[in-house]
Amino acid sequence: MREPRARRIVVFGTYQADAHPRVRVLMxxxxxxxxxxxxxxxxxxLSTAQRxxxxxxxxxxxxxxxxxxxxxxxxxxxxxxxxxxxxxDVVLVGYMGHFDVHLARLVFRGSVIALDxxxxxxxxxxxxxxxxxxxxxxxxxxxxxxxxxxxxIVLDTIEHRSRVPERLASRAVVAAVGADSSxxxxxxxxxxxxxxxxxxRVIFYGLFTPLQGAVxxxxxxxxxxxxxxxxxxxxxxxxxxxxxxxxxxxxxGADAPARWIDWVASDDLPAVVAAHHIALGIFGTTAKAxxxxxxxxxxxxxxxxxxxxxxxxxxxxxxxxHAEFVPPGDHVALASTLAALVGDRERLGRRRRQARELxxxxxxxxxxxxxxxxxxxxVPTSExx
Length: 385
Prior knowledge:
globular, 6-stranded parallel beta sheet, Rossmann fold, alpha/beta, 12 strands, 385 residues, 2 domains
C-alpha cells in the first residue's frame, strides 16, 4: 500500500521573518506536521509603521509602491517557476500580505491560498492615531478584499476571527502567534532565579505604540521609585523605540530603575530576554489592545520569564492562571505587582516555571497550527469556488 504524498506548501510574499517571526512559527509547525514547506520570499525591507503608512497614504510615498513592484516581479518569476516545476497544494501568504495575497492568487491558480491575516490594516491605523473617516474605510476595504482573495484566513485570536465578515467566516481559522525554536533554545539557558541579595531583572521590548501601553509602564517605573525600590531591588530594561517613547521616558523620570536600549538585533533578542526574570506584555487601553496576545508574551514565556501583562480576554484565555495580570492602563497595579514579585522570590520562581511549562505545551509551532492543519485538506481551491 502506497503512503500518502506529503502536502507541498509554498510560503510566499514580502514578509520579514527577522522582524516578524510569526511566519517562522507557522513554518516550523507545518514542517513538524509532515508537510514539505518551501519559501518564496522577497522581503520588502519596511517596518510595520512604514507599511501602515503605505496603506494609509500610498500617494505620498511613491518609493514604497516602487519597492513593492520590484519585489513582486521577483516573486512572480520565482512563483511561476515553482508552479511549473511542481504546483503546490497550499500557498501560505505571510504577515502583512494584504496585497501579496492577490499576486499569489494570480501566480498559483489551482492551489489553496491561505492568508496569515495577523493584523487588520484598519484596526492598526486606528490604534496608531488615525481618525475614523475615508482613510480607515479604505483600509477596511483593503482588509476585506485581502480576505476575500484567500481560501483560508488565518487569525491569531477568536476576537480577530469575530471581525471577519460573516460571508467569509467559514474560511477563518485561529492559530496563536506562538514562539519559534530560537526562544525555546534561549529558555533552556535561562537565567537562574534571583537570590535575596540580587535585583530582579525585568524587560520590556516593543514598538512603543498605544497598544503597548508604554506610558503606563513609564508611570509604573516612577511609582516603583516612589515605593523605595531602586537598582538594588529591581533592574528594568526597556528595549525599542516608537511614537510613545519620549512620553514614556518623561513619565518614568530620571530616577527610575531603568536603562533604555533603542534596538537589539533579532538574532540576539531571545538570549537578551532569557537573561531577565520578568517580561512585561502590553498595557494599552485601545480596542486593538483588547483583541490581541502580543508576540512578546509567547516568546518571553518560552525564554523562561514570568509574564506580567494586562488582564484582557484573549491574554487570560491563553495564559490561564500562569501569569500576573493587571487592569489595562493601571500603572499603580502594575507597580504593585512588580513590587510583590520582587518581595516574594518563591512566587516569582513559580511564575517562571509555569510560563516555561505552558510555552512548552502550547506555544510551539506544532502546538499552534492544529486547527490550520485540520482544515487544509477540505479547503476548496479557487477553481472550485
